[in-house]
Amino acid sequence: MQDALRLEQVSKQYNGFKLEDVNITLPSGCIMGFIGENGAGKTTTIKLILDLIKRDSGSIQILGQECRDMPRALKDSIGVVMDTCCFSEELTAKHVGKIMKGFYASWNQEKYEGLLRQYRIDSMKKVKECSRGMKMKLSMAVALSHDTRILILDEATSGLDPVAREELLETFQDFIQDEEHSIFISSHIISDLEKICDYITFIHKGKILFSEEKDALLESYGILHCSRRELEELSKSAVAGVREGAFGVEALVKRKKIPGGMHVDPANLEDIMLYYSREE
Ligand SMILES: Nc1ncnc2c1ncn2[C@@H]1O[C@H](COP(=O)(O)OP(=O)(O)OP(=O)(O)O)[C@@H](O)[C@H]1O
């Protein structure tokens, strides 16, 4: 099946920052979480995918089509939610729907109104009168009310309370039930991504450190508590990161490379990200 998203050797240079040789493949029917510290290059990558800024080199395909000068039919297939609401503050949710109807050929007014009700958004309320969470939900309602095949979300769940986030995560899972739908989502709420993602891509200082299946990633790493001497006896390739404590060391290790008798605790995504960043 065709990939939902494919970036090959994508680079972009700003004064003081370089996004370098980014390679990402998101298969259709999957959710990919995009993680990295502040300033790592997540929004820059997303803007490149959406053709909002020009790349210096590399290729980007969405649903098998080159994203440069995006054709209208492709725009209809992409639902976007950025970290800030992009609708004019004076518009009501009802007005937003009217404008979007002209923008998307496949606009589904009934679905939009249903989502406004589901998200408890008053259609007569102006954008400026909405809380941050309500604005995010409004953006999400728009993103889901056309013939969307891929959702691209930049920090879309930030600012939402845990109940609203849970609701949205369920919406995401419903969305990808059909094998043709996919989601690329950046977030600092790593636990949310751990719940819903099939793939995790980690960007650090403009470079992709890994882009892998989440389950394989979580299975392959673990946390080892041991003495410094025990650590020194391990193969260097077994250790991805070390934290020194008063009573020994704690290390992120590759399970397969650890001798049988040693106990290794499970690592979560946040552990993996923190150890990798620190090691860098
Ligand atoms: N238009 C621009 N001109 C110059 N530098 C920029 C521009 N946009 C972003 N940058 C720089 O690119 C780097 C990456 O920024 P980006 O917004 O992609 O990070 P991010 O991973 O999304 O961070 P955050 O998690 O804080 O949102 C930063 O150093 C930022 O200052």
Automatic annotation (TrEMBL):
Q: Which domain of life is it from?
A: Bacteria
Q: Give the matching SUPFAM superfamilies.
A: P-loop containing nucleoside triphosphate hydrolases
What is the protein's name according to its record?
Answer: ABC transporter ATP-binding protein
One Pfam match: ABC_tran
Q: Where is the ABC transporter domain?
A: 5-230
Keywords for this protein: ATP-binding, Nucleotide-binding, Transport
Q: Which GO terms describe its molecular function?
A: ATP binding; ATP hydrolysis activity
